[in-house]
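REQUEST ID: PR-0412
SUBMITTED BY: lab tech R.K.
PRIORITY: routine
TASK: structure prediction, single protein chain
INPUT:
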Amino acid sequence: MEILKRLTEAYPNATCELNYGSDFELLVSVILSAQCTDKRVNAVTAELFKVANTPQAFCDMPQPELEERIKSCGLYRNKAASIKSCCKELTERFGGKVPSTREELMSLAGVGRKTANVVLSIAFNEPAIAVDTHVFRVAHRLGLSSGKTPDEVERDLCAAFEPKDYRDVHFLLIRHGRDCCHARNPECDGCFLNGLCPSRGADKPKANT
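STATUS: complete
OUTPUT:
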C-alpha cells in the first residue's frame, strides 16, 4: 500500500517511545501512558523502576506512596489502584510473569484491549494493532476506517494491512499523528500524504472573509 510505503520512508525509526527493561515494566508504562505523554511517563518510570520493578515490589509498596510517585502522569489515584490490583493478580495467578495472550492480559485490572495489544505486539511479537487517539484520528482522515469505536477501527486496519506490518502501522500512524496530522491544525499543505488523503484541508482553520 502506498500509504504504508510513504509513512515508512518518512519515519524509518518509528517505534515504541516508552523506556522499559522488561515485559512487566512495559505493561506498567503502558498503563501509566493513558491520557499522558510518553515523555512524562519515561520521566516518572526512570525513578519509579529504581524502587520497584517487579509485581511483588509494587504489591509491597503502599498505595499512597505509589500515587505520589506517579502523580504527574495524571489520573494517578485510578492508575495506582489499577497497577496495585494488576500486580496482585500477576503474582497470584501468573507467578509474577506477564501473560502472553490477549484474553489473559485483558483479565488484569487496568488492562483494556489497547494496552493488551501494545504488550502483545512489543513484548511477544504478536500481530496486533493498538488503537489510541492518534491512530483513531489518522485512520479516519486517511480513509482507512470509518469505524465509530476503537475496536471497529482496529478491525478495519487489520483488514487493510498484512499481519507482518501491524506493529509498524501502529507506530507509524502514531508518529504521523504527533508530527503532522495533529488533532487541531493538521499540516496538510506540507504533508507527504496530501495527494492520497481524502480529508486534506478539511480540519484546517478557515480564513476570515
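NOTES: The chain has a mean pLDDT of 94.
REVIEWED BY: pending
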